[in-house]
Every structure is written in structure tokens, then in C-alpha cells.
């Protein structure tokens, strides 16, 4: 059975998260599995990251096994035809080795968090950003974030119910920049690591927002990290500004197939 990697984007608002739920709540995984079943490939698929309810993706990766060989352009188009009108799209497909695993073969994950500084209610970005009604000090947040880069015990910044075997992770990068978004100024946080703890990104961003607002001094981030106690963390920010922006592999399976999601399928493939 040939194996394919799928690069997926989705609006997480209508879903309970990536993972299929026993009670039948809508999930991204269930939507894609239903589309694959209509192509004769009923199966449970695996993804690089199990995003929570309300979290979005521009670069999620999953893999599936098909009953026959497919042209990657036609496979993307056929899956997308069966996903409509859900806000989920396969933007690229790549044929991969039989031992490729979307989760276990990944060497890094990249997240983006969008924070809009705007007093008026968001319109075009509603549900896609975390909105605060005050300006934030970019330099202060950058100073606080610097304490988090590297290998640390991130107990302070993980959910109490996190199931990871160890709280020790290496945060390879956290960059923060101010941009002009569609609805006004945004602060964008980009984080990169091999893997993340449950709620780690939202805990970090919520804490750094307090630094930017002037409620915390940057040094307090270092003290919170050293405390290794969940109670030392700042507020956990809401999920709607968070995006799984990309997944890295030793050999990029999509290097030659970017944009393969735009081709319409032949009727016999649907």
C-alpha cells in the first residue's frame, strides 16, 4: 500500500481539535478520514501534532496509506472535493517511504501566534487572532522571551494534565515582531522546537503579554521558569490566535510538490 504525506491547513474554529473524538464531536482528523474513506481508503491517520480546539494550522502534516498509486495532484484534488465545504484543505501531497511517519519522523515543529492590538471588535480576523485592547512593549517581551530559549524544565509552562513523559524541552527559537495586520497592528510570536508540551505555546504567549503590558518585568519570566511550578505561570492565552505553521523533516517530502492541492480531480477519482 503506497504511503502519502498530506500538508494540511484548517480553521480550527468549528472543530474540537485535530483528534477524532469518541462522542462524535467534529474534528479535523475525522473530516479527513471520512474523505479518504470515500476514496476507498478507510483508515486511521496520524498527524505531526494534535492541535487543541480552536487552534488553526497552515502547515499540519499527516500521512495515509492508499489502495493504489495516485498522482499527487489528483489525490489532493480528490480529498479536497470530499472535504468541501469544511474549512480544511490539503495544500500538497507527496509520495513517501513506507516507514515515513508524520509524527515520529518529524525533527521540528513551528508555531505562529497572532495577537491583535485593537480596541474595536475584530471583523475580518474574528476567531483568527487573540485581541487585546492595549499596546504592548515589543522590546520588553523580546527580553523576557530570551530567558526561555534553550533546554529547560518547562513545568511552569505546561498544562497540569500534560501527558509528556518529561517537562524538559529545547526551545530552539522564539522571535517576536510587530506587523501591520489587516485590522491594525499585530504582535506575532514564532516558536520552533522539536516538540512542545501541552499548552506550552499558549502559556508562554500569555506570560509574555503580561510583560508587554507592563504588569511583569522581563526578569520575572526567568523566575517563573526557574520555579518549575504551574502557579508561577502567567495567564494561558486563548487558542484562536495559535497556528501550527510548519513541520520539519530530515528530507522535506513536499520540496517538489508545493501547491499540488489546486488541481481539480478527474470525475472517476471522486
TrEMBL record:
<comment type="function">
    <text>Formation of pseudouridine at positions 38, 39 and 40 in the anticodon stem and loop of transfer RNAs.</text>
</comment>
<dbReference type="InterPro" id="IPR001406">
    <property type="entry name" value="PsdUridine_synth_TruA"/>
</dbReference>
<dbReference type="InterPro" id="IPR020103">
    <property type="entry name" value="PsdUridine_synth_cat_dom_sf"/>
</dbReference>
<dbReference type="InterPro" id="IPR020094">
    <property type="entry name" value="TruA/RsuA/RluB/E/F_N"/>
</dbReference>
<dbReference type="GO" id="GO:0003723">
    <property type="term" value="F:RNA binding"/>
</dbReference>
<dbReference type="GO" id="GO:0031119">
    <property type="term" value="P:tRNA pseudouridine synthesis"/>
</dbReference>
<protein>
    <recommendedName>
        <fullName>tRNA pseudouridine synthase A</fullName>
        <ecNumber>5.4.99.12</ecNumber>
    </recommendedName>
</protein>
<comment type="subunit">
    <text>Homodimer.</text>
</comment>
<comment type="similarity">
    <text>Belongs to the tRNA pseudouridine synthase TruA family.</text>
</comment>
<keyword id="KW-0413">Isomerase</keyword>
<feature type="domain" description="Pseudouridine synthase I TruA alpha/beta">
    <location>
        <begin position="147"/>
        <end position="249"/>
    </location>
</feature>
<keyword id="KW-0819">tRNA processing</keyword>
<feature type="active site" description="Nucleophile">
    <location>
        <position position="52"/>
    </location>
</feature>
<dbReference type="Pfam" id="PF01416">
    <property type="entry name" value="PseudoU_synth_1"/>
</dbReference>
<feature type="domain" description="Pseudouridine synthase I TruA alpha/beta">
    <location>
        <begin position="9"/>
        <end position="104"/>
    </location>
</feature>
<dbReference type="InterPro" id="IPR020097">
    <property type="entry name" value="PsdUridine_synth_TruA_a/b_dom"/>
</dbReference>
<feature type="binding site">
    <location>
        <position position="111"/>
    </location>
    <ligand>
        <name>substrate</name>
    </ligand>
</feature>
<dbReference type="GO" id="GO:0160147">
    <property type="term" value="F:tRNA pseudouridine(38-40) synthase activity"/>
</dbReference>
<dbReference type="InterPro" id="IPR020095">
    <property type="entry name" value="PsdUridine_synth_TruA_C"/>
</dbReference>
Amino acid at each position: 500500500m503506497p504511503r502519502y504525506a498530506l500538508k494540511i491547513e484548517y480553521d480550527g474554529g468549528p472543530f474540537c481539535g485535530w483528534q477524532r473524538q469518541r462522542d462524535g464531536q467534529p474534528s479535523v482528523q475525522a473530516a479527513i478520514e471520512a474523505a479518504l474513506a470515500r476514496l476507498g481508503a478507510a483508515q486511521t491517520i496520524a498527524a505531526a501534532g494534535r492541535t487543541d480546539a480552536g487552534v488553526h494550522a497552515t502547515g499540519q502534516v499527516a500521512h495515509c496509506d492508499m489502495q493504489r498509486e495516485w498522482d499527487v495532484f489528483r489525490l489532493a484534488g480528490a480529498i479536497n472535493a470530499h472535504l468541501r465545504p469544511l474549512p480544511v484543505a490539503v495544500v500538497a501531497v507527496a509520495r513517501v517511504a513506507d516507514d515515513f511517519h508524520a509524527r515520529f519522523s518529524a525533527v521540528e515543529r513551528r508555531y505562529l501566534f497572532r495577537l491583535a492590538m485593537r480596541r474595536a471588535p475584530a471583523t475580518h480576523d474574528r476567531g483568527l487572532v487573540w485581541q487585546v485592547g492595549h499596546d504592548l512593549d515589543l522590546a520588553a517581551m523580546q527580553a523576557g522571551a530570551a530567558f526561555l530559549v534553550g533546554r529547560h524544565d518547562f513545568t511552569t509552562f505546561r498544562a497540569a494534565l500534560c501527558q509528556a513523559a518529561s517537562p524538559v524541552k529545547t526551545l530552539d527559537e522564539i522571535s517576536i515582531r510587530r506587523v501591520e495586520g489587516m485590522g491594525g497592528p499585530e504582535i506575532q510570536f514564532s516558536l520552533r522546537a522539536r516538540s512542545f508540551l501541552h499548552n506550552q505555546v499558549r502559556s508562554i504567549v500569555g506570560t509574555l503579554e503580561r510583560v508587554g503590558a507592563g504588569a511583569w518585568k522581563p526578569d520575572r519570566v526567568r523566575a517563573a521558569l526557574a520555579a518549575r511550578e504551574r502557579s508561577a505561570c502567567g495567564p494561558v492565552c486563548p487558542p484562536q490566535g495559535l497556528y501550527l505553521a510548519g513541520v520539519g523533516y530530515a528530507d522535506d517530502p513536499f520540496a517538489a510538490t508545493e501547491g499540488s492541492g489546486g488541481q481539480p480531480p478527474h470525475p472517476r477519482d471522486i
